[in-house]
From TrEMBL:
Belongs to the prephenate/arogenate dehydrogenase family. Keywords: Amino-acid biosynthesis, Aromatic amino acid biosynthesis, NAD, Oxidoreductase, Tyrosine biosynthesis. This is Prephenate dehydrogenase. Its EC number is 1.3.1.12. It comes from Dorea phocaeensis. It comes from the Bacteria.
């Protein structure tokens, strides 16, 4: 019998996992239910799924895995409904950003021998199936939270499956997961959202803040464009952790304010120096949506053929261009040419070469 995998919710994350399964296990049968009918139609048309279920029904019998990939409160609510389709050996999992709540419900329903929580530490501010891609989970940590009743062989099987899809399994206890993600994911989303709203509420009539906002504001607020429903559910379900973490964070903001109020030069230097060192020490794996890119930026003379000249110089030195285009933003007043390469070595060589040809090259 063919291996079968079920999805309940086929948006950004469900869709990405389904596409990765299609890529690495092309013979697996994939059945999905999503409240959005267009999503199911598109996934069927793209042959990502084999069966579009109109509800959670018999199609979910005999699955090796069932993934719950809707917003977290809905995943928890679906446990009861899905329970009757769990055959022997079926691993029931989810991809939710909060784990304790679903583990509590799993325990209440006696589903501990089937359930292993899952959470890929990758994503995007874009949501929905059309934005999903197999590569999203590639090289990303994928947290697994087993239950007390989880058999070691099932945990090993799920970890191996995650690895086959290109992700890196990490086993954590659900409470610990929620405190960690509360700090590194949920808090940053609340900060980004409230910072964006703070600017909106304090902007001038002419919206000068909105128009002058440059890289700093945009870098720290990308995630404010994320799905409001998803984050509403996360904040409700990880309430205790987030509340405590926010209180602690507000205290560190008060300390930063005190440094500013006191004009404490040494303290302010320390604030930025320690943060810079720690930020620079973050592992630069390619996990997550921000893949490492290798690009050089250079000024070009504003005349016909400017880009062609550069492309010819690079090509004649065997440097393959992955992407090329003019960037117009306030960091580069007149706009610059951004040339992306496939690897660091090519990018470094290109920078030296272009400098030799007297182009002004920027390193970022
Ligand atoms: N977006 C991220 O960065 C990210 C990363 C890791 C984990 N997660 C978690 O993954 C889960 C899904 O998030 P996403 O980013 O894929 O969101 P999404 O909005 O892209 O996808 C959610 C999907 O669930 C469907 N859905 C919503 N309510 C439903 C219901 N009641 N019944 C059936 N289908 C329903 C939607 O139609 C949509 O296709 C969430 O639990 C989230 O916490 C998200
Ligand atoms: O990169 C993003 O856009 C994300 O928000 C991804 C992100 C995160 O906070 O890092 C969001 C929620 C998840 O549960 C895991 C990953």
């Amino acid at each position: 019998m063919k291996d079968k995998v079920g999805f309940i919710g086929l948006g950004l994350i469900g869709g990405s996992i389904a596409k990765a399964i299609r890529q690495y296990h092309p013979t697996y049968e994939i059945v999905a239910f999503d409240k959005n009918k267009e999503t199911l139609a598109l996934a069927t048309q793209e042959s990502v799924i084999d069966v579009a279920a109109t509800t959670i029904d018999d199609n979910f019998r005999n699955c090796s895995y069932i993934f719950l990939c809707a917003p977290v409160s809905y995943n928890t609510a679906y446990l009861k409904q899905v329970a009757k389709y769990l055959g022997k050996g079926c691993i029931l999992t989810d991809v939710g950003s909060v784990k304790t709540n679903i583990h509590n419900e799993v325990a209440a329903l006696g589903l501990g021998s089937h359930f292993i929580g899952g959470h890929p530490m990758a994503g995007s501010e874009k949501s929905g199936y059309p934005n999903s891609k197999a590569m999203l989970i590639e090289n990303a940590y994928f947290v697994l939270t087993p239950c007390a009743e989880t058999k070691q062989e099932n945990l090993d099987r799920y970890a191996a499956f995650v690895q086959q899809l290109g992700a890196i399994p990490v086993i954590l206890e659900a409470h610990q997961h929620d405190y960690i993600t509360g700090t590194i994911s949920h808090l940053p989303h609340i900060i980004a959202a409230s910072l964006v709203n703070f600017v909106r509420d304090n902007d001038t009539k002419e919206e000068l803040m909105k128009n002058l906002a440059a890289g700093g504001f945009k870098d720290i607020t990308r995630i404010a464009s994320s799905s409001p429903t998803m984050w509403q559910h996360i904040c409700v379900k990880n309430k205790e952790n987030i509340s405590q973490i926010l209180a602690n964070y507000i205290e560190t903001l008060q300390q930063a304010k005190a440094l500013v109020d006191q004009g404490d030069e040494q303290g302010l230097y320390q604030l930025f120096d320690t943060s810079r060192n720690y930020r620079n020490s973050l592992p630069s794996t390619s996990a997550g949506p921000i893949k490492k890119t290798f690009a050089v930026y250079c000024d070009i003379i504003d005349e016909a053929g400017g880009i062609a000249t550069i492309a010819t110089i690079l090509a004649s030195n065997n440097l393959n261009i992955k992407n090329i285009g003019i960037v117009h933003n306030r960091e580069f007043e007149e706009g610059v040419l951004r040339i992306e390469f496939y690897d660091e070595n090519s990018s470094n060589k290109a920078a030296l070469l272009l400098q030799k040809y007297r182009y002004i090259v920027y390193e970022r």
